[in-house]
């Protein structure tokens, strides 16, 4: 199902039981993440619920995704990272390093690679709903958004994040 958002077209995909994909039209890795089993009909109740969630989000409501049946496809490490990202509050950010520390804690390890976390973040199959746009570099760089840094900036501004604290990659300066 296609959804016309303020950021361009989004593709929503579900199986019989849950939402399994939400991608920008030209998102990196989209083809690699596309599931084999999916429903794209506009009448699918899960897809309708997801579009209502997106309508609320883009209207400025702090939407809770707990009423959406989500089941992103990925290994246990990626699913753990996506679960932690889902806990980042609306209008807040966390660094890859902070997420890596939380992953290590939950796995009972002393450390975890922020780069490994970055790989999982970059392959998030449910953009916006699993808010990977809220993940920033340890130096405050707005980096690593497979939908494009321009979209990451728009989403963070939409959520009220004060971007003057962060480095914009194209310019190397704070906004």
Helices and strands in order, then pairings?
Blueprint: E1 2-5, E2 8-14, E3 19-24, H1 30-33, H2 45-58, H3 76-86, E4 94-95, H4 96-107, H5 114-122, E5 135-136, H6 149-158, E6 167-168, E7 173-174
Helix pairs in contact: 3-4, 3-5, 4-5
Can you walk me through this structure?
The model has no long low-confidence stretch (mean pLDDT 86). This protein is of the alpha+beta class. Helices cover 34% and strands 14% of the residues. It has one domain: Winged helix-like DNA-binding domain superfamily/Winged helix DNA-binding domain (Arc Repressor Mutant, subunit A).
Gist?
With 175 residues, the protein is an alpha+beta fold. It contains 6 helices and 7 strands, in the order E-E-E-H-H-H-E-H-H-E-H-E-E.
- Indicate how many domains the architecture comprises: 1
**Tell me about the biggest sheet?**
3 strands, antiparallel
**Structural class by helix and strand composition:** alpha+beta
| Gyration radius over CA | 16 Å
Q: Can you tell me the CATH architecture?
A: Orthogonal Bundle
Determine and state the CATH class. Mainly Alpha
Query: Would you count the extended β strands for me?
Result: 7
What percent strand?
5-15%
Kindly report the name of the CATH homologous superfamily: Winged helix-like DNA-binding domain superfamily/Winged helix DNA-binding domain
Descriptors for this entry?
175 residues, single chain, 3-stranded antiparallel sheet, transferase, two-stranded parallel sheet, MGMT
């Amino acid at each position: 199902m296609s959804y016309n958002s303020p950021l361009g077209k989004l593709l929503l995909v579900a199986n019989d039981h849950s939402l399994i994909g939400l991608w920008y039209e030209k998102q990196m890795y989209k083809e690699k993440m596309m599931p084999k089993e999916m429903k794209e009909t506009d009448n699918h109740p899960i897809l309708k619920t997801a579009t209502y969630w997106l309508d609320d989000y883009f209207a400025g409501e702090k939407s809770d995704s707990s009423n959406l049946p989500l089941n992103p496809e990925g290994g246990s490490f990626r699913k753990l990272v996506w679960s932690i990202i889902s806990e980042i509050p609306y209008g807040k950010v966390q660094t890859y390093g902070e997420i890596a520390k939380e992953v290590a804690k939950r796995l009972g390890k002393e450390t975890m690679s922020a780069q490994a976390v970055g790989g999982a973040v970059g392959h998030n199959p449910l953009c916006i709903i699993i808010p990977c746009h809220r993940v920033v570099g340890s130096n405050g760089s707005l980096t690593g958004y497979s939908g494009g840094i321009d979209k990451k900036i728009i989403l963070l501004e939409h959520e009220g994040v004060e971007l003057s604290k962060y480095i914009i990659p194209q310019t190397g300066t704070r906004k």
